[in-house]
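Repro case for the chain-ordering regression, as requested:
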Amino acid sequence: MTTTQPAGQSRKRTSLRTDILEDRPVNLDGFVEEWPEKGLVAMESAFDPEPGVRVEDGVIVELDGKPRADFDFMDTFIAAHAIDIATTEASMAVSSDEIARMIIDPRTSRDEVLAVIRGLTPAKILDVVRLMNVVEIMQGMQKMRARRTPANQAHSTSARDNPIQVAVDAAEGAVRGFAELETTLGVVRYAPLVAIALQVGGQVGRGGVLTQCALEEATELELGMRGITAYAETISIYGTESVFVDGDDTPWSKTFLASAYASRGIKMRFTSGTGSEVQMGNAEGKSMLYLEIRCILMARGAGVQGLQNGSISCIGVPGAVPGGIRAVAAENLVASLCDLEVASGNDQSFSHSSMRRVARLMPQLLPGTDFVCSGYSAVPNADNMFAGSNFDTDDYDDWNTIQRDLQVDGGLRHVREDDILAVRRRAAEALQALFRHLDLPTITDAEVEAATYANSSNDYPLRDVLADLKGAQSVMERGLTGVDLVKGLEATGFHDVAENLLTVLRQRVSGDLLQTSAILTPEFVPLSAINDANDYAGPGTGYRLQGERWEELKKLRHVTSASNPETEVS
Amino acid sequence: MSSPTGPTSTAERTLRLRDIGPARRGTRPDEVVIALSPAFAGIFSKTIVEVPHAEVLRQLLAGIEEQGVTARVIQVHDTADLAAISHLGARLSGSGISVGVLSRGTTMIHQRDLARLSNLELFPQSPLLDAPVFRQIGSNAARYAKGESPEPVPTRNDQMARPRWQAKAALLHLKEFETIEAGRGPVEVELDFELSSAG
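-- result from build under test --
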């Protein structure tokens, strides 16, 4: 039973200040007490196992206090595939204090840290990051993230699944700087049209942007194999066997799926995050971060290049317990410590308070991650079919200003209105021409005009949904592929867009996008941990926001000119 | 998300469930079974947004009765899984239709012939279920029982439900799980409503 009076029922007189505080947005957020026995605790739990490992005849026979006979399938998978058996006993012998210091010390190289981490068990990694406060976690992230140059990812979706909206918002997102674009659907059958729209719009905005469509796993794989999408991310993994089994999956089935992508040269990453197990009632009495570390090691064991983590869709759970956002920052760091690309959350509605929204972002924005948001909403949150992001289109100018204030690169930039209108119109026109060429449902000139100036899905003429769904079905039935899109764009006069898309598709032949943290520059140069390795070694080293990029980020919507203060520069 | 739907008057209905024996398969083709989770009107008295359990049942019953259909209420003790509760209710229902309800408010309309993990209508976002929605759910369940195909109750969506309610929902879920009594079969219950002053 509740012991406190529900809000609004108190008859006691309260101070006027209390009334103001009660009305602050932060008090609309939910907070709960910890319950460690059930796993409702961020990262400090007496019920997490003690670190330990024992190797016999080249096999791990004891992991974090559990003998091999008692292993669940997560333990078995991790012991067999995720821990370097040759070095584990030596690495485990290094004290947690020493490893934590290695992580934050610029004189210890990233490679030296990776070498030690490779031999650690889940409980030992937890023991190490538990020693670190948020500033130390950020310092670790600055050195340990795999790619030197930080980047960002966007969601481009539509509450009406309107493909034109998805195309133009993808184009705008691309020109604003997102390196990856992701969509999903309200009505799943719309997927082929919306995935095509995302791909075309993205390549209009900026050649080399990578796109994906989050769907049920078989369809997602098929769209990837056909070249309608460029990568995949929504392959979820969990930290307990019971939750895995609930989803009819195992570490091996997920690994098999990952290899299906790799077999076609398609970039992919797994998804996991703190809070998912306790949310599903099967945390087996372990802390959220301990279970997430098991996921991270499972991802490494599967051989995937990266992971989307940072609680993701369960952010309301760690967000509600003490130290939860520290744990979320720590889980991103652990993914980097395991040499994985990290797409670091900040992708789901998190708080009613703008101050909390920004504070939750700082541990990723300030040090930089491979993708600061694994889904900044490049549409208004009401159109976000991932159920809303921590940041949306309304926040673009604030984001750009924060980058400029702190001189940090969050992957975005201010773009002039005429440039934005131009790419939006062109994306709509390209999709219009392509749909006509492929005999897909008509896009009218009125829709192109509306798309150029629109903000949300409410600003577009309504589509004939049944005709669209028939068109979407025909895309699948006719077996259309990315090459058909290229041909159609070329045939309808969108040569540069066709060229951009073809160049993205050719990456799957070279396999360069399978390297850790790979993205494409506007010149189609793959930028990954291989050729853009993070070389942070203290002040003055690593990625620095300077030169041309810094000049670009100095621009905002309104900046008073120094030479003529009666005007603004833009 | 607006503030919780709290009781507005000082008089509040309280509800007691009286166990009247093992739940049996109904024979009336015009009945809907309402299947309640283990902690409903037990350790919990209201949903996640403070709709009293008494009100939830009153609205469901009213919705069913306004369609000229009768209702029977059972409580399940050996699981807190909504699909399992609802499907069990459907199998005990003379019409094959049930409404399953968790203590926090999550609700499902189920049918005997469907797979357990399938359903007729699911209302997963417990914070968005208020009294009028429960009444519509009752009404729709009754219409299915009569062999009609009603328009599904419109589902709502609120992207700020996550920051406000996700963790509390997890906590309520864990608490409800603790009240599970393995091996105890479903029981038929009678409802004792009392009007009490919540002063």
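Ordering looks correct now. The first helix of chain A runs from residue 16 to 22.
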